[in-house]
User: Which sequence fits this backbone?
């Protein structure tokens, strides 16, 4: 029997949605105020879901303290109070949409977890807008 465990974390970050192949008019047309050349920010809420078998020795699917430490070390430390476009390696060439941020976070954490565990990322960019990966 599998059980899902969740960890909620939070980070603040600025970004600009922008396609370098387009001029400013087209970027504004497609991305609106999110393409502001001076950037804008969000208070992101991150939910990490891990699903797996309960370990009969510990009673855990995954130690939640270890999960918190993992997320903080490999995601929060890299993204919190950063300009995602300018301050992170991940978004130098990748548009930092909520979708792409969720995929990047998934890829970072996937490599840190045992392959027997399922991983899902839910990222709230605003109270009303969120994405989930994988779908």
Assistant:
């Amino acid at each position: 029997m599998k059980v899902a465990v969740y960890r909620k974390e939070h980070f603040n970050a600025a970004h600009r949605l922008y396609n370098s192949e387009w001029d400013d008019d087209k970027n504004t047309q497609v991305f609106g105020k999110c393409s502001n050349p001076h950037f804008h920010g969000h208070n992101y809420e991150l939910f990490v879901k891990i699903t797996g078998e309960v370990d009969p020795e510990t009673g855990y699917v995954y130690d939640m303290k270890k999960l918190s430490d993992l997320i903080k070390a490999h995601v929060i430390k890299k993204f919190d109070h950063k300009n995602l476009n300018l301050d992170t390696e991940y978004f130098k060439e990748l548009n930092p949409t909520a979708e792409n941020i969720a995929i990047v976070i998934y890829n970072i954490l996937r490599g840190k977890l045992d392959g027997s565990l399922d991983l899902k990322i839910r990222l709230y960019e605003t109270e009303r807008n969120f994405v989930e990966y994988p779908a």
Notes: The first strand starts at residue 2 and ends at 15.
